[in-house]
Amino acid sequence: MSHSSEAIGASTRSLHADDALNLVTDVAPPMHVSTTFRYSKDPTQLVPAADATPSDFDPTSHIYSRMSAPNPTRFEAILSSLLHGQVISYSSGLSALHGALTLLNPRRISVGDGYHGCHGVIALFTRLTGLQKLPLDCPPDQLEKGDVILLETPVNPQGTAFDIASYAAKAHARGAYLIVDSTFAPPGLQEPFQFGADIVMHSGTKYFGGHSDMLCGVLATNRDDWAAQLKSDRLFIGTVMGSMEGWLGVRSLRTLEIRVQRQSENAARLISWLDAALHAPNPTPDSDEAAVQAVLGEVLHASLQKVEGDWLKKQMPNGFGPVFSIVMKEMRFARELPSKLHFFQHATSLGGC
C-alpha cells in the first residue's frame, strides 16, 4: 500500500500499510528475533554490498539486523504511510535527533527551551563540531545556509504550540532547514510536512509506543537522498531499533488513531473544566471552583493560547495535544499533588494508555 493513498483512512492504513510485507499466513505479525539472515541460494541473486543500489534492497529480504529486520521494517512501513514521508526508526528519540544532526551537520542550531534531552544532544555536537546554539527567535540574519531550526511543537512540557509555517519560511529564506519535533502532536493532530518541515522527528516511546513498554525514535523525510544517507549513517552509528521494540511498535500503531483522538478529547474536557473553574467569578466556599482557585495559578495548553491569525486552527484542525501543564500557587502544592491523584501515574513520560 502506497503511503500516498490518502483515500484510505489513517486507521485502515495503520492496519494494512505493511500488508506487502506479509510473507507468512499469521494474521498478527510474528516476532522475529534473529540478528542474521540467510543469503539466496541462487548465485545470480547475490550482489556485492559495495555495488548495491537502493533498488537492489528488497524490504522482504534481510541480511543483518543492524541494516534491517522484519519487525522494524513493518513499523517503518506503517509510519511512512501515517507521516507522509520515508521513515527511519531509531533506538530512542534522542538517537533520532543525533541522526538528523549527523546528516545535516549544521554550524548553528536555533532552538527553544523545550526538551532537555535535545539540549544534551546539541551539547554533544558542540563539543565535537563547535555547533553554536541560538535562541529560537534569533534574528534571521544569524542563520546561514545549512543551519537548522529545531522546532518542538507543541512544546514539552507546557503543551503550547508554535507556527510551523512561519519558522519554515524563516529557515528557508536563509537556506537553513527546519526540523519539527512533533512528539506531542502525533499523526492525526498535526502534519508538519504540510507547513514546510524538512524533517519530522518523534520520540516514538510516547504515542507510537503508547503502552509505556518500548523505547523508539523516528525521523521522516521526503528526500530520497536524505533517507538513504540516514539509513547508511544509522548502520555505522548503530542506533537501530531492536526487533522486540519493532514488534511492540507494530502492535501499538494498529490503535494509534483512536488512542490519540480519545486522549486529545479527554484532555480538552479536563483543561476546559480546570480553566472554567479557575476563572469562575465569586465561587461559593467549599465549591470545586473555590478549591481550584485556592491552589491553581495557571493552565497551559494550545487550546487556551491567544494567537494572531488562524494558524493554530489550521495547524491542528482535529484537536490539540493530550499534554498540558498546570502551574500551582506554591511549590509544595506541585510537590504534593501527584501523590494525591487516583488515576494518574506519578512517573516520567507520556502517551501511555
Biggest sheet descriptor: 7 strands, mixed
Assign the structural class, choosing from mainly alpha, mainly beta, alpha/beta, alpha+beta, or little secondary structure: alpha/beta
Compute the number of strand runs: 9
Percent of sequence in beta strands: 5-15%
| Unreliable residue stretches | none
Query: What is the general shape?
Result: globular
SS field, number of helical segments: 11
Rg (CA only): 22 Å
Give the proportion of residues in helices.
Answer: 25-40%
The helix/strand order is HHEHEHEEHEEEHHHHEHEH
Distance between the termini: 28 Å
Structure description:
This protein is of the alpha/beta class. The mean pLDDT is 94. The protein contains 11 helices and 9 strands. It is globular, with a radius of gyration of 22 Å. The chain has a 7-stranded mixed sheet, sandwiched between helices. The chain has a two-stranded antiparallel sheet with strand order 8-9. α3 (93-104) runs parallel beside α4.
